[in-house]
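Project outcomes to date are best conveyed with an example. Our students and postdoctoral researchers have been running inverse folding experiments weekly, and each run begins with a structure described purely in C-alpha cells. The record below, which covers 245 residues, was selected by the lab manager from last quarter's runs and is presented without edits.
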C-alpha cells in the first residue's frame, strides 16, 4: 500500500512540472496599481516583435516602457525569461529576469534593471512554491526571500505572468503603497489574474484602445495622443489625455 501511494504522489508532482505555462506565446497586458496619495493603475503590454543577436523578443509598451527599448524573450526549454534594455551610455544589455524551473531551496542571483528597486538585489532563495488555478489552468507560484543582509525584499512570481511587482523587478516586493502591485493580467484580452483590493474592476485597455482606433475609420482617424502638456503618450488609465484626429 505504501508503494502505491508513493507512486501516485510522484506522478502528481511530475504532472505539474511538465505543464509549463508560457508567458510570451500571446498578447499580454499587465495592470500595476500604486496608492500614494490616491491610487493609480498604469498599464503596459506586449506590442510587436523584434530580433537582436539572433534572439526573438517581444517589445514592451505603455507605462514607462513607451520608448519601446525594453524587450523580453522566453526560453521555453529552460523556463527562463530574459530582458534586453538600452543601458545608458553603453550597448544594449540582457539580464535574466525569471527562472520558473526553480524548486524550493534553490538560489538565484537577481537584478532589477532600470526600476525603483536596487539594481543589484543579490542572491535569493525559493522559500515556498504553490500551484494556483487561474482560468482553469494551474500556474506555478514562487515565493522568494533575500539572502543578503542589506536587501529586505520578498518577491512573488507567477509562471506565465511574471513578478507581482513590476515586470523588470524580479527582486522587488509587490507593494501597492510602494512601487506597485499587479492588480490585473490579461492574455489575448482574457482576464487571467486579478487582485482587486485597491481597484474596483479589471478592463483590458488595449482592447478599448483598439476599438477606439477602429471606430468610424472611414470618417476619422487618431493621429496622436498627448497629455495635457501636449507630450506624446500612449493610452493610460486614470490619466487626462488629448486625442488628435
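After processing, the design step wrote out the following sequence:
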Amino acid at each position: 500500500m505504501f508503494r502505491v501511494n508513493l507512486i501516485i504522489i510522484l506522478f502528481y508532482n511530475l504532472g505539474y512540472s511538465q505543464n509549463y505555462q508560457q508567458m510570451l506565446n500571446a498578447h499580454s497586458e499587465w495592470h500595476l496599481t500604486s496608492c500614494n496619495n490616491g491610487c493609480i493603475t498604469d498599464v503596459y503590454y506586449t506590442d510587436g516583435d523584434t530580433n537582436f543577436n539572433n534572439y526573438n523578443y517581444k517589445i514592451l509598451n505603455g507605462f514607462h516602457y513607451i520608448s519601446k527599448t525594453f524587450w523580453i524573450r522566453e526560453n521555453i526549454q529552460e523556463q527562463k525569461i530574459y530582458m534586453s534594455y538600452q543601458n545608458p551610455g553603453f550597448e544594449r544589455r540582457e539580464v535574466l529576469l525569471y527562472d520558473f524551473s526553480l524548486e524550493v531551496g534553490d538560489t538565484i542571483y537577481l537584478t532589477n534593471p532600470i526600476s525603483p528597486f536596487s539594481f543589484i538585489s543579490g542572491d535569493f532563495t525559493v522559500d515556498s512554491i504553490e500551484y494556483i488555478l487561474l482560468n482553469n489552468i494551474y500556474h506555478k507560484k514562487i515565493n522568494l526571500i533575500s539572502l543578503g543582509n542589506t536587501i529586505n525584499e520578498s518577491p512573488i512570481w507567477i509562471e506565465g505572468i511574471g513578478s507581482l511587482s513590476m515586470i523588470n523587478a524580479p527582486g522587488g516586493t509587490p507593494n501597492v503603497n510602494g512601487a506597485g502591485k499587479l492588480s490585473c493580467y490579461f492574455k489575448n484580452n482574457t482576464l487571467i489574474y486579478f487582485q482587486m483590493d485597491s481597484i474596483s474592476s479589471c478592463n483590458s485597455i488595449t482592447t478599448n484602445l483598439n476599438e477606439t482606433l477602429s471606430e468610424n475609420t472611414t470618417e476619422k482617424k487618431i493621429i496622436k495622443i498627448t497629455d495635457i502638456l501636449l507630450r506624446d503618450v500612449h493610452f493610460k488609465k486614470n490619466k487626462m489625455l488629448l486625442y488628435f484626429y
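Helices lie at 2-18, 205-214. Residues 2-18 form the longest helix (17 residues). The training component of this project remains on track.
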